[in-house]
Q: What sequence folds into this?
């Protein structure tokens, strides 16, 4: 069985994924890291040079290539769930786990982060963008088989809670 960590950017999917992989003896695949490796450039470069649609296409292609993967923790990009096709691919891959964190907590983590291309597009402040995107995505994230509220948990406690809920 694979476990797919979903949730907004900055929630800790990569960190918690590493902990879970170690504890469960699973492999870890971070989709953003894998796309950067495959494209030999950063996510920010892809957004800047090719746009968000191209990046979402790369996410879909990666999910399609993972259909035979087993016993893997897959830390997904925060917006991967936006495409219906991606949601179906993710569901076929394994159990989805939503790492839920309130907007105020995320804004505190992300407000100084210059490496998140979606935070620095358009006229919105990062705070406005986080709030809007999280409100748009929350119903989709909530489709996950497991939901863990992470606000008052350390990454290690979150990993323990995920294992308990499985």
A:
């Amino acid at each position: 069985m694979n476990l797919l960590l979903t949730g907004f950017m900055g929630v800790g999917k990569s960190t918690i994924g590493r902990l879970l992989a170690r504890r469960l003896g699973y492999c870890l695949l971070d989709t953003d890291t894998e796309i950067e490796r495959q494209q030999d450039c950063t996510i920010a470069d892809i957004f800047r040079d090719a746009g968000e649609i191209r990046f979402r296409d790369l996410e879909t292609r990666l999910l399609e290539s993972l259909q035979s993967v087993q016993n893997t923790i897959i830390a997904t990009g925060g917006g991967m769930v936006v495409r219906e096709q991606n949601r179906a691919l993710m569901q076929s891959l394994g159990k989805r786990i939503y790492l839920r964190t309130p907007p105020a907590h995320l804004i505190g983590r992300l407000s100084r982060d210059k490496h998140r291309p979606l935070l620095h597009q358009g006229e919105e402040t990062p705070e406005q963008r986080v709030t809007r995107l999280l409100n748009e995505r929350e119903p989709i994230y909530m489709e996950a088989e497991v939901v863990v509220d992470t606000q008052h948990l350390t990454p290690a406690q979150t990993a323990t809670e995920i294992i308990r809920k499985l």
